[in-house]
Amino acid sequence: MKFSITLSPPTELLAIVDIFNKLIVNGVTGGAFRNIRPVSSNSPVEDVSSTNMRCNVGGASGTGTTTTTFRAGSTVGFALDNTIFHPGPLAIYMGKAPTTAAAWDGSGANWFKIYEMGADFTPFKFQSMDKSTFTFTIPKTIPSGDYLIRVEQLGLHVAGSPQFYISCAQATVTGGGSARPQMVSIPGHITKNDPSITVNIWNPVPIAYKVPGPAVFSG
């Protein structure tokens, strides 16, 4: 006798939100929304063509947010008040501000990816799941200046309806280099038909997965 198993998302996944509200710099965690732009909605961004894909709803301006300063090569990260609850990949982008980080709305082809978490397959699980903090290294070779540091966590718990949980931190990078990463625009870095965001992760369970967006710039 053969049995087939169809998995479905737990109902509690539909009620909890992932809000990245604290920035970690070289082991020190800042206050909530001190260096991260506050957002005006707890809801995820669901339209990949929306300008809200940059820094979330209400995150287009950072005039009320403190810009932190650290050297290229520093260890930086994000923290949540809860653990990441929505299954899906996570990516970190940096955007070079034309003037100051506080004044930039994230427009233009100024973004590049520096870090990502994908999935493991024995058993299948996204690497970001159940984490309340995570860190990454700022490439040593990027030019000095003001940047937005953007976290993009993608919830795939509802098949065919991707949900993006986004926050932007403001930073001034010092001691950098002269590298020129390949830049992308946001929105535009992911298309609505990308199989990485339309995949059904419950049935059948994936045996391979590619994080959406451009390749990671390693510096």
> Strand order within the widest sheet?
3-11-10-5-6
The total number of structural domains is: 1
Helical region count?
2
Largest sheet: 5 strands, mixed
Q: Which tags fit this structure?
A:
single chain, disordered N terminus, Coagulation Factor XIII, Chain A, domain 1, mainly beta, five-stranded mixed beta sheet, four-stranded antiparallel beta sheet, 2 helices, 11 strands
Describe the structure.
Helix content is 4%, strand content 30%. It is mainly beta and 219 residues long. The chain has one domain: Coagulation Factor XIII, Chain A, domain 1 (Distorted Sandwich). A five-stranded mixed beta sheet has the order 3-11-10-5-6. The longest helix has 4 residues. It comes from Rhizoctonia solani. Its EC number is 1.14.99.56. One of its GO terms (biological process) is cellulose catabolic process.
Summarize the topology.
Blueprint lengths: L19 E6 L2 E2 L22 H4 L12 E4 L3 E6 L9 E7 L14 E7 L1 E3 L2 E3 L6 E5 L7 E11 L7 E12 L20 H4 L21
Parallel strand pairs: 3-11
Antiparallel strand pairs: 1-2, 1-4, 4-9, 5-6, 5-10, 7-8, 10-11
Subcellular location: Secreted
Pfam family, one: AA9
EC number: 1.14.99.56
